[in-house]
Amino acid sequence: MTDTHTITVASVAVDTRHWIGGERVASAGTFTDVSPIDGAALGEISRGTASEAAAAVAAAKAAFPAWAATPPAERARLLHAIADGVEKRLEELAIVETTDNGALLRSHRRGVMPRVAHNFRFFADWLLQLGHEDFETRGHTNHVSWDPAGPCVLITPWNAPLMLATWKVAPALAAGNTVILKPAEWSPLTASLLADIAAEAGLPAGVLNVVQGLGSEIGDALTSHPDVRRISFTGSVPTARRISASAAANLTPLSLELGGKSPLLVFADADLDLAVDLAVEQYDNAGQVCLAGTRLLVEESIAEEFTRRFREKASRLVQGDPRDEATDIGPNIHPRQLEKIDGFVRRALAAGARAVIGGHRKDDRFYAPTLLTDVAQDSEIVQEEVFGPVLTLQTFGTEEEAVRLANDTRFGLAATLTTGDHERAERVTARLVAGTVWVNCFFVRDLQAPFGGSRHSGVGREGGTWSFDFYCDLKNTVTAPEGWKDHG
Fold it and tell me: How are strands ordered across the β-sheet holding 472-479?
């Protein structure tokens, strides 16, 4: 500890207070942030309440007119400056994030933190090319403009804290809005560092605010505030229901990216090595990935060979300290999450499921990579999101059955399929209910593509122009061809 409001994580100083109106603000209460790596307390974080929520919204509202009036080129310049700051502090961000949420350090260094910088650069550049050509209606000119909406509340999850936060922050700021960012209480630290980076880049006070707190204790005050113009949330379906109810009184527009129970379909004509590789990849980030294809649907004729190869490849996965280059799977985020995962598996086994691998917790930090078979389609383990390193395997006999099983949940976030038949790929993808479908690949994400879920996996789409559709109020101005007075 360097002072009462700063903690040191791997030699990196992190301020534990909120960032409101360009200043650090402490709360009377705190909550403890714990590292999933060893269970050690990292420090006490300011615990926001309705008071801090109101102050953050007020700061964002006060800063909005000037930021909205800032020319797009200047807004883009500042976003690029934030990206520069991220790249300058990439190693610090990587080690703090790994310590705070347990994801692999090598992934943060090589993929996640570079993507954080890219989020800012992409939306800065997209802003400058945004727009539609004017068009005519019976001689009248139509001009579409993208007007900033106002203060935006962004509530983000713990599984990829900074990357998913900046996926929202960058387009919201680019569009000319001000932001109140509420990070997850299990992984709040890099959001605080982002506030420092934004301030160092020259972002005006009040344009980005960061408030920390415990769930609805501060969340309800943010999402029900009448001065908030947009709410974007990534997280669970129950929390989304609460946010939706809270926002309803003010008719505040929502973007919700929620859970998934995505299928991974393996047809007999697929490259089996590729299919196995993609299936084992679903254990990435200890299974704490909303897009993960956790339901393996394998054609009957190859199921035995697929299972044999899967077991062999999965057995080589290394669980351990996420700071070690040799580690493939780090710890789960929190003891409560581990208990939740274990509960799902214990109930499935009691109902007749069979564990091909795993099926048990290793200690209070790690859950063994698990594959369950002999599971009924209507069972909890098939229908509900576990959010841990737990996959199920079911077989199908026909293409029709594969599609039926794939679509038979209340979710529709993503789907993956492997096949060597291009025509089959087209037929199947056309019938899958999912916001994203990957064919013979997984997790290829382009920021210009729409992203979101169907059914209970979400509301709305973000990415590219779709992000600006959400974060802006679109205006169409129709001008008559005549009637102008000469003011010569």
Answer: 135-137, 140-148, 472-479
Rounded to whole angstroms, the Cα distance separating 81 from 197 reads: 9
CA distance 282 to 286: 9
And the tokens for 270?
């697929």
Report which DSSP code applies to 255: E
The number of CA neighbours under 13 Å toward the Cβ of 211 is 34
Summarised one tens digit per residue, pLDDT across range 73-130 is 999 999 999 999 999 999 999 999 999 999 999 999 999 999 999 999 999 999 999 8
* H helix or E strand, kind and range, residue 179: strand 179-182
Ranges assigned E (strand) in 204-319 = 208-210, 230-234, 254-257, 263-266, 295-299
**How many whole angstroms separate alpha carbon 253 and alpha carbon 459?**
10
The token pair at 407 is 């679509």
3-class DSSP state of 472: strand
Instruction: Quote the distance between the C-alpha of residue 447 and its chain's center.
Output: 13
Using alpha carbons, select from 323, 322, 393 the residue that is nearest to residue 355.
393
Contact 302/266 with Cβ under 8 angstroms?
Answer: yes
Report the C-alpha gap between 383 and 52 in whole angstroms. Answer: 38
Per-residue pLDDT tens digits for 400-421: 999 999 999 999 999 999 999 9
**Is 423 within 8 Å of 402 (Cβ atoms)?**
no
Q: Is this model's pTM higher than 0.90 or not?
A: yes
Helix (H, G, I), strand (E, B) or coil at 162: helix
Q: What's the one-letter identity of residue 455?
A: R
- Show which residues are catalytic: 257, 290
